[in-house]
Design brief:
Blueprint (H helix, E strand, L loop, with lengths): L4 E2 L29 H16 L8 E2 L19 E2 L14 E7 L4 E2 L3 E6 L5 E6 L16 E5 L2 E7 L5 E7 L5 E4 L19 H13 L3 H14 L6 H15 L2 H10 L8 H13 L3 H14 L4 H19 L4 H7 L16 E5 L5 E5 L8 E6 L9 H18 L4 H5 L17 E2 L2 E2 L3 H11 L1 E3 L3 H4 L10 E3 L8 E2 L5 E6 L2 E6 L8 E4 L8 H12 L6 H9 L2 H18 L12 H16 L3 H4 L8 H13 L3 H14 L32 H16 L3 H19 L11
Helix pairs in contact: 2-3, 3-4, 4-5, 4-6, 5-6, 6-7, 7-8, 10-12, 16-17, 17-19, 19-20, 20-21, 21-22
Protein name: SET domain-containing protein
Pfam families: SET (PF00856), TPR_2 (PF07719)
Keywords: Repeat, TPR repeat
Length: 726
């Protein structure tokens, strides 16, 4: 898909990009409109400039401004009152009305497809159609086609060169426009010039030509016209077969499956229909249904190697769904910047979605899970291969709209996600088919993208390396994982391999217990992090740690911790010492003194088995400072403090270099609320280094084993700790 860029500013292409800089919200008749000749002349200049520009330039995306949201039409073009263009009022959505228009120009392809249109009375205007997939002919409507616009939004699109207002019909919601077949009686007589081709055979040949030229949207259009005017029922199966195959190439799996099944004739050649239907179901990740159709194809053609290959792939996906048996190392090795969409099934059997006592729906364990167990592994519902931070959100929004448009069966799972507070009540008809396409509200889709998407590196393993490129993350939707509620100290940790989300238990989880994740890395101060949750998702966290810090700890204690943390950060300038950095003793003493005061400011009766987040930064710094001086005993002491401050249970005396204990057991406490991050792994490695420095090999080995277990939790699968040094 080419559309991956955010929209340019409105001034970049006035009159063509459809972006309004300072919207005038007054409903009124347009002042002075250009003539048909002037509109066509100006439009032709832009089209010619585009024809002279480099081919395959990416098209920008117009992301919705939620402050200007309006609902999509849920009516059929046959249910609205058709009005002439002359009755359009600026800044009006013309509820209950519609337009039947003929396209009288080639399209200009920017953020939208801009065309000049004419009604049955000879009135002309400009229209910009947004959010259509490249697989649809509506992404650039050819001259001569007839379209219907439901409840059209008429707006000002900036100023023309002479200072006059530039008006435009703006179609944001893709379901608000429909391509009308040439034989449809709804077309007014003045616009009814007759079909371009007369017979079904002519349309089929035109479709075949377009297919050979790889103009697949036009091929689908022509095959559809052929079906509309075919009088011989025996002629239709071959057209259904061709349209099914073309839709499969375009990723329109719902249509491919439907057409494939419609092409059956009751003969042995039906293996082709079942084969195509099976591949379409596979594309939708409906592997059980795919197996059913591929089995029927094999019954009719048991020696066909292509069917056998697809059938074996399908069995592999079903095995993954059933068992959660993945070769994660092999999966990691298969990853590349061009190969992020993995051919895998999703394992979710250990979890179920139920009503949550916390917020709406939640995810709950269906069996007892131990630390390190695979909770679930989910392939992304939607994730574009776009890792540029400035483009990732726009790419996910565009992909979501277009995939739902192309495959309406996805609507039920995606549209049930929470989009945040809307300025209007959501319509229960969202996602249902009207005029052959699902009703899609782009403002709802942008809201649910914003509230439910995950930022994802190419792999979490790569992201832990010092050489990782900071900020290069894609964005994606994982519908099952989106049911997880937030906790600052969750019981799971997520990681990524391409478009695969891996969730592992970080402590014991009982069957029926709700599963939590961190939405974002937690801030040390409870008021700061809850401000993030309030602004981003509209809730205040009620996890064990937040309740303790905000409801049980006194305001005076919170302010004291905040002040002491600020003093520590001021001294350290928010930097952690490097391995060979030698820190002055005076600085270390100052920090150590402040850290003791900060530790004393944590009430034991409140923080007895909870993380102490304000202590983590300073503790980590002291580990680095003493490591640089090769002071192994104090490195051990503060590394143990780091682990304790993350909420891990430490045995009495563990801070002493002479204490013999097993760091591996810290992950298996059933009473402590620990927070697992890569910093825990680093602290365990520092512990191992210090024990080695003191000649305590057994303790060093135990610490390494604990670090390896923690690294498995962080990255999702077993990995060598040396990755942290690369």
């Amino acid at each position: 898909m080419a559309v991956v860029l955010p929209s340019p500013p409105a001034t970049a292409s006035p009159g063509l990009d459809g972006v309004v800089t300072k919207p005038d919200t007054t409903t009124r008749a347009p002042r002075v409109k250009p003539t048909k000749e002037d509109l066509l002349k100006t439009h032709a200049v832009h089209v010619q400039k585009q024809a002279n520009s480099p081919e395959n330039a990416p098209r920008p995306v117009k992301q919705p401004n939620l402050a200007l949201a309006y609902p999509a039409s849920t009516k059929s073009i046959r249910e609205v009152d058709i009005i002439p263009l002359s009755q359009l009022e600026v800044n009006s959505h013309h509820r209950g009305s519609g337009l039947i228009l003929k396209v009288i120009s080639p399209p200009f392809l920017g953020a939208g497809a801009v065309s000049i249109v004419e009604d049955e009375f000879g009135n002309v205007d400009k229209i910009s159609i947004y959010n259509q997939n490249d697989s649809s002919i509506l992404s650039g409507v050819p001259e001569g086609c007839i379209i219907g616009v439901k409840e059209p939004y008429y707006t000002i699109n900036g100023k023309n060169a002479d200072g006059s207002e530039d008006y435009m019909i703006c179609v944001d919601h893709p379901s608000d426009v429909t391509l009308i077949r040439f034989t449809d009686p709804i077309i007014p007589e003045p616009l009814r010039l007759g079909p371009l081709l007369k017979t079904a055979e002519d349309w089929k040949k035109a479709g075949d030509t377009a297919f050979l030229e790889k103009d697949f949207p036009t091929a689908v259009f022509c095959y559809t016209e052929a079906l509309d005017c075919a009088e011989d029922e025996g002629f239709k199966p071959s057209i259904y077969t061709k349209r099914a195959g073309t839709s499969l190439i375009l990723g329109r799996y719902d249509s491919a499956k439907e057409d494939a099944l419609a092409s059956r004739t009751g003969t042995s050649t039906d293996w082709k229909a079942y084969y195509t239907a099976g591949r379409a179901c596979y594309g939708l990740c409906n592997y059980s249904e795919s197996k059913e159709y591929l089995s029927k194809a094999l019954e009719l053609n048991p020696t066909n190697p292509a069917i056998k290959k697809e059938y074996e792939r399908c069995l592999a996906r079903l095995h993954e769904e059933e068992t959660g048996d993945y070769d994660f190392e092999a999966i990691y090795k298969s990853l590349s910047p061009k190969n992020v969409h993995l051919d895998l099934g999703s394992f979710t059997r250990n979890t179920e979605v139920k009503a949550s006592p916390l917020h709406g729906r939640g995810l709950f364990a269906t069996k007892d899970l131990a630390p390190g167990d695979l909770v679930f592994a989910e392939k992304a519902t939607l994730m574009p291969n776009q890792y540029e931070p400035m483009r990732a959100s726009a790419a996910l929004y565009a992909l979501t709209v277009r995939q739902l448009l192309d495959n309406p069966s996805l609507c039920k799972s995606v549209l049930q996600l929470y989009p945040g507070e809307m300025t209007y009540e959501r319509n229960p008809l969202e996602g249902t088919l009207v005029d052959g396409v699902p009703v899609l509200d782009v403002f709802v889709i942008e809201g649910l993208r914003n509230k439910n998407c995950f930022s994802v590196p190419l792999s979490t393993l790569e992201d832990t390396r010092p050489t990782a490129q900071e900020g290069r993350q894609a964005k994606g939707l994982w519908v099952h994982a989106s049911n997880l509620n937030h906790a600052c100290v969750p019981n799971t940790l997520r990681s990524f391999l391409g478009d695969m989300l891996i969730s592992r238990a970080t402590r014991h989880i009982k069957a029926g217990e709700e599963i939590f994740q961190q939405y974002v890395p937690v801030k040390s101060l409870p008021d700061v992090r809850n401000g993030v949750y309030k602004d981003g998702w509209g809730f205040e966290c009620s996890c064990t740690l937040c309740v303790a810090e905000l409801k049980q700890s006194s305001e005076a204690s919170r302010e004291k911790r905040k002040d002491l943390l600020a003093q520590v950060e001021k001294i350290l300038n928010k930097k952690t010492p490097r391995a060979k950095t030698i820190i002055p003793d005076a600085t270390i003493r100052s920090v150590d003194k402040l850290m003791k005061q900060l530790e004393e400011a944590h009430e034991p009766e409140i923080y007895g088995r909870l993380p102490r987040l304000t202590l983590i930064y300073g503790s980590n710094w002291l580990v680095g400072a003493y490591r640089g001086k090769k002071n192994y005993s104090k490195t051990i002491r503060h590394a143990v403090k780091v682990l304790r401050n993350f909420g891990f249970e430490m045995p009495q005396g563990a801070e002493s270099q002479d204490k013999v204990w097993d760091p591996r057991q810290m992950f298996f406490s059933e009473e402590w609320h620990s927070l697992m991050t890569i910093h825990v792994v680093v602290a365990l490695r520092r512990l191992a280094e210090a024990y080695n420095g003191l000649g305590k090999k057994e303790m060093a080995e135990r610490s390494v084993e604990a670090a390896e277990f923690g690294y498995m939790l962080v990255t999702g699968f077993k990995n060598d700790l040396s990755n942290l040094d690369r």
